[in-house]
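queue> pop job 88
queue> type: inverse folding (structure -> sequence)
queue> payload:
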């Protein structure tokens, strides 16, 4: 039985590793899609599909780090777990600085890998929620007139209505009317809710702190 509609993408040019990982993931109710090269993955991947990526470093053609750089450069946010049988500290640092969640050395203990994959899927779910919140906020902001946007920004900055009226050269009654419209269009009933909505910036779409590189037992290189 599938865990949900999220997919664990595996990119590794070692057929035995791909088969082992696919069997492991499917035995845990996770949907797996395996690819023998970065180009095969790029041809099949559709941006926005929920999931995470388990990526080997050294492959024929485009390397894992090159694929990671391409995804980052094209702003295709997907949590990435790097696995490698030839890892070294500079390579791990490069991958993690570029946004990988983890850099694991082959052979990787299956339970360690499963734990990191489930963590990555949780991160992806959080990213999706943040994108939806930003899109919802953008729709609400688009409803405001330019003057209402000015008033909203001043309200969020903590300015009282009398000061807003003086600064933009309108009457207090006009400011209160704009303020009422802002609250209605933004879908809130109080100024404090407006401040919370507009000021609470979501964390950037980058990795959470990754644990130290973890040596393990299998699948192998």
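queue> result:
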């Amino acid at each position: 039985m599938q865990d949900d509609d999220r997919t664990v993408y595996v990119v590794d040019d070692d057929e035995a590793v791909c088969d082992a990982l696919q069997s492991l993931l499917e035995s845990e109710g996770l949907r797996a899609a395996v690819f023998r090269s970065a180009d095969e993955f790029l041809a099949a991947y559709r941006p926005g599909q929920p999931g995470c990526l388990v990526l080997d470093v050294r492959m024929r053609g485009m390397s894992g780090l090159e694929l990671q750089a391409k995804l980052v450069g094209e702003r295709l946010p997907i949590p990435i777990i790097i696995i490698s049988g030839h890892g070294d500290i500079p390579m791990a640092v490069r991958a993690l600085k570029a946004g990988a969640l983890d850099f694991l050395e082959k052979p990787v203990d299956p339970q360690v890998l499963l734990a990191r994959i489930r963590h990555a899927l949780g991160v992806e779910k959080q990213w999706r929620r943040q994108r939806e919140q930003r899109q919802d906020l953008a729709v609400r902001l688009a409803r405001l007139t330019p003057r209402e946007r000015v008033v909203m920004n001043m309200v969020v900055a903590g300015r009282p209505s009398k000061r807003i009226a003086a600064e933009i050269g309108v009457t207090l009654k006009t400011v209160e009317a704009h303020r009422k419209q802002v609250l209605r269009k933004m879908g809130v009933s109080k100024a404090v809710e407006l401040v919370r909505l507009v000021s609470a910036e979501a964390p950037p779409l980058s990795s959470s702190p990754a644990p130290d590189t973890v040596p393990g037992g299998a699948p192998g290189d």
